[in-house]
Design the sequence.
């Protein structure tokens, strides 16, 4: 740790509510909470899968409790918000050129939505066939 | 000057962000809503089918990517959000946050590899 003590502007816990840009930023960062929890829920499901049929069925059963349904509804909405913000930032991170011309931002954004649609459809087909 | 380890975490963050944006919505819809609500019949998501899926190398890879990579996005963002709320955490807390993502990735890989052998 360095010995210097930089100046820190005092900011209240609600600074992010005073400006729409900051509010959206914190809402987007907040998606991390539910996505991380969801990852651990799935990891636990995988653990139960490794313990046999009874354990796995118990996990699936637990997922139908109202609390978990609400959690997954909230997570789905919040994750989609993360997707939208991620797609809108994608052209700023990607610098793709076709010959002498830079690929327009709208192509990259549309491409990401297209990929989301294809992957989602593939997921549904995979579980239904 | 000591080289920064940030590019490594940034890479995992980027990969995780991509997976969370493209794969996580449909994963939540299937495992969290359509199956538990019975819209997708239970036999489509049965123990036997899931076990077979997890024991195929491609299925195992998909499961690992969907569980592990978003954790890196999330722990990276949560760590940096601490700063936004005035908590200027040191390297120990940083190690703790990335450690959660690391531990989750390793636990997931271990469970899948045990099923594969």
Sequence:
């Amino acid at each position: 740790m360095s010995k210097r003590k930089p100046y820190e502007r005092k900011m209240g816990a609600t600074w992010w509510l005073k400006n729409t840009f900051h509010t959206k930023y914190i809402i987007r960062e907040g998606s991390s909470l539910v996505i991380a929890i969801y990852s651990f829920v799935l990891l636990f499901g995988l653990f139960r899968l490794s313990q046999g049929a009874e354990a796995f069925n118990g996990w699936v059963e637990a997922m139908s409790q109202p609390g978990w349904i609400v959690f997954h509804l909230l997570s789905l909405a919040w994750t989609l918000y993360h997707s939208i913000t991620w797609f809108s930032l994608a052209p700023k991170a990607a610098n793709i050129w076709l010959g002498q011309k830079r690929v327009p931002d709208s192509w990259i954004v549309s491409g990401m939505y297209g990929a989301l649609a294809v992957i989602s459809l593939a997921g549904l087909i995979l579980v239904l066939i | 000057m000591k080289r920064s380890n940030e590019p490594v975490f940034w890479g995992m963050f980027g990969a995780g962000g991509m997976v969370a944006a493209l794969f996580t919505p449909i994963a939540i819809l299937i495992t969290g809503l359509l199956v538990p609500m019975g819209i997708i019949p239970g036999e489509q998501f049965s123990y036997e089918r899931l076990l077979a899926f997890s024991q195929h190398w491609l299925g195992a890879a998909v499961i690992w990517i969907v569980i592990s990579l978003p954790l890196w996005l999330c722990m990276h963002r949560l760590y940096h959000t601490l700063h936004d709320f005035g908590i200027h955490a040191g390297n120990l807390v940083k190690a703790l946050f990335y450690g959660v993502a690391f531990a989750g990735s390793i636990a997931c890989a271990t469970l899948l590899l045990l099923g594969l052998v």
Notes: The two ends of chain A are 57 Å apart (CA to CA).
